[in-house]
Write a structure and sequence with these properties.
- There is one protein chain.
- Helix content is 48%, strand content 12%.
- By secondary structure, it is of the alpha/beta class.
- Helix 5 packs across helix 11.
- It starts with 11 loop residues before the first strand and ends with a helix.
- The protein is built from eleven helices and ten strands.
- It has a six-stranded mixed sheet, sandwiched between helices. Strands 1-2 form a two-stranded antiparallel sheet.
- The protein is globular and about 65 Å long.
- It has one domain: Rossmann fold.
- Helix 3 links the parallel strand 4 and strand 5.
Length: 301
Amino acid sequence: MKCRKCGAAAAIELRRHNAAFCAPDFQEFFRNQVREAIRKYRMFTTEERVLVAVSGGKDSLALWDVLIDEGYTTTGLYLDLGIFDYSVESKAKCEAFAARRSVPLIITAVADEVGAPVPEIKAATRRPACSGCGLSKRYLMNRVALDHGIPVVATGHNLDDEAATLFGSVMHWQTEALPRQSPALASTHPRLVRRVKPLYRLSERETAAFAFMRKIDYIVEECPFAVGATSIAHKQVLDRLEHDSPGAKHNFLFGFLEKARAAFERVDGVELHECARCGQVTTSTVCAFCKLSDQVKRARA
């Protein structure tokens, strides 16, 4: 195979684009996809600070790498979930990346905020680990951004992630979730920062290839609690479709964003309040994070 752009030997084939690229041209292709995502959804400007949520995996570190090179003022945020050796290693990867690129990294331990690490939260709530973990991450990303005066949080969700989430929502017709299925969520309250996903145009395989070419050292192992997760099954279904019909994930996600999402937006807005306990945004008197913290404390007592 030859690079579509320069004619040199190709390093990677992208079947959904009917193209192949050498390493330098693929990296430029990757960056262009991120640029287009930022431009199309007006995610942030070079004058704004961006909080990049990093997990130590390929996606978030690749995103941080691109934003640094594009000249954005970024700060990393690593949430220590306290998941055994997995968290120890992933934290080390983020610290090493931040040191190598000379960029600031904020580290916040879930145990310090909720009262217990994710494994104990799972035991206390008797619900899947992803439930308490996801709630904690969303809350803490927003709060840390507010505390540091940063208006936007960028996460490393890629095309595979977004297509799988959409597939799950459609499978169960979770119509309340569909309006939030977007590469960019605006601030709807003074205490809510914007949330964006600049990698939504790029597949997991493409992100892995970029990280490899850029020599980004990332944690390869999946979270131990991800085993058996429904989202993994959804990804596997979509992988089979993609194999037989390259571009299926792109068509599914982009078709929804361009043609269907608006139909699910609620005309009557949800009434938002500030939590009576912590001051963060909620739809009730006390937010779900404070309730989770109370539940953990009762279980530990």
